[in-house]
Structures are given as structure tokens and as C-alpha cells.
Design goal:
single chain; about 300 residues; 12 helices; about 80% helix; about 0% strand
Length: about 300
């Protein structure tokens, strides 16, 4: 009964995947009406990169995965930080899952041709494991890369705050200080800052509004706070040099604390292999003695 149930589930999933590939589902009428009635939103500052290798293979499954509510809000924000389109991400998930399903049967076929076939349970479990792992792997990669980019951006933002403070102390205006400080720096973080300020100039909006939008898209709260402080200086004429210096110092302190915490966590993780190695060594030494004692009884 268990074998029949597993075979039935596998055949059903395969038929559903094949039908989805041949006849991709279309969006519902309600979704189309909601798109027509939705209010226009501001164009995002973060842009997606080129299509990946899996976009062509997994594209027919994108609509089906989207209808399931994938990916979630948090993962969509991470994909925006990484610069990866949602459709490309879903296509990659589907492609890796399909590859994970097909690899064990192909390996089983090679063994059968060689005259050393395995039981069907091993390829089936391997297919399920590889499919689940391939489906979840892009999510883990996106979260890890987004976390790293946010950390890099916070490091660059601390230097950006100091540059703005120096320029304001030298008599520069708020707009000039923001643009000149962004033009000095290099790297991905300063490139996003320059893109946000360029968007503000092209759309004839204030630079702090673009920085606030960029902070919201990145999920970096210090950048949103910087935009609020600069807006006071630009609209109310407030003196923000001391505030910017305090924010830069607090940001550096926070990043230092996070770095120390990550280093301590890595140190703790390194103790696990040592404990396992010591346990294996003790078992290797004590097993012969224990075996002799048991045989003597």
C-alpha cells in the first residue's frame, strides 16, 4: 500500500508539472481588474539584473508558483536588494526542482544499463530530497546575499554621513553636500546613492525623498533617519551637523557590535567539530576494550 501511494503521488505530481508546463495558468479576472484600478506607485530605485540561465527552463512554472503566493513579502524585499527579478527567481526555483527530480532516475538508468540497478526506493527518496533542496536553495542564497549587501551598505552609509558633515561644515548647501559626498565614494552602496539622487533630479523631487524611498526599499533604517534629518535642514534650515556625527558614531558602534557577535558565533560553531572529533576518538579507543569485556561475560 505504501509503495502504491508513493507511486501514485509521484505520477500525480509529474502529470501536474507536465500540464502546467504545457498550459500555463492565466491570472484571474479579479487580479487583472485590481491591476487596472491600482494607484500608480513610485518607480523603484533598485533595478533588477539580466535574466538568469534558468529563466527559460522554469518560465512555464512562474504563473503557477505566483498563484500560490510565492515569494513572500520579506523575500521580495531581499530580491530587490539583490537586484533579481521575481519571475527569474521563481523560474530558477522551478528549474532546480525539476533537475533534482530528474537526476536520480537518470542515474538509476545508468546503473540499470551497467547491470547494477538499485531498488526504486533509493532514487525516489533522492528525487524528493534533491527537488526540495533545489526549490529552497535560491531562497537561502537570496537571503544571505541581501543580508551581506545591507551590512555593506550600512558600512558605506557611515562614511557617507561623515562626508556630508564635513561638506556642511565647509559651507556647502544640503543638496550639494548630498551629491558631492555620493560622487566621492565607490562601490555598490554609493552607486545606489547616486542612482537615488539622479532619480530625484530627473523626477524633480527632493533628494531626501529619494533617499527615504531607497532606505525603505533596502530595509536600512539609518538611511531613512538620514533622509528625515536632511529634510529638516533643507526645509526648516535646521543645523544637522552634530546630529549626523552622532548618527555616524552610533552606526559604527552598531556594526562593530554585530561584527563581534558574528565572530563569537563562528567561534562557537567551530567547537562542534572538535567535540565530534573527540567523541569519535574516544569511541575508537574504548570500543575494543568494551568489546573484550562483553565477550568475557
Amino acid at each position: 500500500m505504501i509503495s502504491m501511494a508513493l507511486w501514485g503521488a509521484g505520477i500525480g505530481i509529474g502529470l501536474w508539472a507536465f500540464a502546467t508546463y504545457i498550459f500555463p495558468p492565466r491570472p484571474s479576472l479579479r487580479a487583472l481588474v485590481d491591476q487596472l484600478q491600482a494607484e500608480p506607485t513610485a518607480k523603484p530605485i533598485l533595478t533588477a539584473g539580466a535574466n538568469g540561465w534558468a529563466s527559460g527552463v522554469g518560465k512555464p512554472f512562474v504563473n503557477a508558483l505566483s498563484s500560490l503566493g510565492l515569494p513572500g513579502k520579506a523575500l521580495r524585499d531581499d530580491l530587490a536588494v539583490v537586484g533579481k527579478a521575481v519571475d527569474d527567481h521563481l523560474a530558477e526555483k522551478a528549474a532546480l526542482a525539476v533537475i533534482g527530480i530528474l537526476l536520480p532516475p537518470l542515474g538509476q538508468l545508468v546503473f540499470v544499463v551497467a547491470g547494477a540497478g538499485l531498488s526504486w526506493q533509493i532514487p525516489f527518496l533522492a528525487s524528493v530530497s534533491l527537488a526540495v533542496g533545489g526549490f529552497l536553495l535560491p531562497d537561502a542564497n537570496a537571503r544571505r546575499e541581501a543580508k551581506q549587501r545591507r551590512s555593506t551598505f550600512r558600512h558605506a552609509l557611515s562614511a557617507y554621513l561623515n562626508l556630508i558633515r564635513v561638506l556642511l561644515a565647509g559651507g556647502a548647501g544640503v543638496d550639494g553636500a548630498l551629491n558631492v559626498a555620493a560622487a566621492v565614494g565607490k562601490g555598490w552602496a554609493f552607486e545606489q546613492l547616486r542612482r537615488a539622487l539622479m532619480t530625484a533630479r530627473l523626477t524633480r523631487s527632493t533628494p531626501w525623498a529619494a533617499l527615504r524611498q531607497l532606505g525603505t526599499e533596502l530595509g536600512v533604517q539609518p538611511l531613512t533617519e538620514l533622509a528625515a534629518s536632511v529634510s529638516l535642514a533643507g526645509t526648516e534650515g535646521a543645523r544637522v551637523r552634530a546630529s549626523l556625527a552622532a548618527k555616524a558614531g552610533a552606526l559604527r558602534t552598531r556594526e562593530l557590535a554585530l561584527t563581534e557577535a558574528e565572530a563569537q558565533a563562528a567561534t562557537e560553531r567551530m567547537s562542534v567539530p572538535v567535540v565530534v572529533l573527540c567523541a569519535g576518538f574516544l569511541i575508537f579507543i574504548g570500543f575494543p576494550a568494551l568489546l573484550n569485556v562483553l565477550e568475557g561475560l
